[in-house]
Every structure is written in structure tokens, then in C-alpha cells.
Amino acid sequence: MKSALLVFCMVALQVISGAALAQPRKVTIATEASYAPWNMTEANGKIVGFEIDVAMEMCKRAKLDCVVIAQPWDGIIPALVARKFDAIMSGMNATDKRRETIAFSRSYAEAPNGLGASLKGPLANLPGSGVRFSLAGDKAAAQKAIDAIKPALKGKVIGVQTASIQANFLDQYLKDTVTVREYKTTEQRDLDLTAGRLDGIFTSLSAMRATFAKPEFKEFANSGPLFSGGVFGEGVSVGLRKDDTELKQAFDKSINEMLADGTLLVMSKKWFNSDYTPTK
Hints:
By secondary structure, the chain is an alpha/beta fold.
């Protein structure tokens, strides 16, 4: 009886242990939830957007139990390091500066950046409008494009989200030309644009198009050249803690699969009506 009971207990423990091991890891992903169409909050409080679709599919393939939560952009990296959540998916580009603090997955999207302004204002139809330049490729051509728009930008007030790569661009290339006004949220920035307190905004083209699709922005559009690479980093990626190597490997694998089988392209066209899939 004792032997039989011992065997029974051992088997039961193995079953329980196996079931515990079979449970998927729970992963909490933070997003700003106000950067349409990458991530945004619906009227009912539900968080939706391109990155939420990517996150759910990525986690499904990696067999992870994932939940997406809202987190203010300002301070999102320190909160990750403090282990308040496990990952960041919030339109965040992988840059050398950010890599000093956190790690990144391979990129799941790339989008150029540029200036948005009133079609009736002084910044309409800037030289090079719609032409894309790489700050990591032909640097001379990119600098020439920047120099070409400087005369029109002189003394103008440009809005940008704080702690963003767009703010870094303005600081590096146009700080002696424009007055930069930083905002904690894109909503605050856009309200000042419609109120006439800004001459323009500098942001991702994808987010700009989503903003200017709203009725109140019908008189606004992209003006001037578009930029990527260099200060803008290597594409939008999942932000992770440096010691979470297994999660990085799982996300990298899922993203590579989604890129190879066309899933990322379908999601990109759904939310952006454009192909913003990574080129490398």
C-alpha cells in the first residue's frame, strides 16, 4: 500500500509539474495607446492599432500569454527597466542611444519622418516634398535637402513629442533654425497645431497621415523631404530588458516568420495603407 501510494504521489507530481511547465509565459507589453494608427484607445477603452495586431500574432506564434497595457510615453523606458512590464511596443525605433539602456528585437516596421504643416501657411510646398533621404546612406544628399528647407524654416515654431527620435533630429540638424516646442503627447501637440500656436509638426509620416485624415486637419499635409536612418535608428522594434534574452529570441523568430509569410505586409496595408515592412 505504501509503495503504491508513493508511486501514485510521484505520478501526480509529474502530472502537476508537466502542466505547470506547459503553461505559457505571461508577458505584459506596454504601449502609449495614443499614437494612431500604431496604437490608440477606442471610446470603449480598448487598445487597438497596428502594433496591437502585431503583438497578438507575435505572441500567438511564440506561445506566450500576452496582454497590452497603456503607459505614458514619457518614462516608458525607465518603467521597463524597473520591471513594471516586460516589453515596449510603442512606435519605438531602435537607436544606439536607447541601446545603452535596453535591448531591441529585430524591427517589425520602418517609416520615414517629416514635417507637417498648413497647406495655406508659409511652410507649404517646401523643396523636396515627398522625396525620401537616408541619413545613414547618402549623407551629403540628405544634408543638402535639409539645407534647402532651412531658409523657409527660419524662426518658425515646430512641435514634436518629447523624448522622441524626431526631437533628436530637430536638435541635431535644425536647432539653430527653428524654435522647438516639445509635448508629452501627440494630442497636445496637434491641438496647438490646429490652434495656430505651431507653424508645423515633425513626426513619423505614418502617424502624420493618420492625424491629417481627421476632418479638422483637412488643410494640413506633409511638406518637405522625408528622412530615415541615422538619428532615426534601425526601424520600429520591441523594446526589452537586456537580460531577457529568451523573450528577445522568441520575438525575433515570430517577427521573421511574419515578415517571410507576408503577415506583416497585410497588417501594414490594413493600418497604414502603405508598405512599412522592414527592408532588412
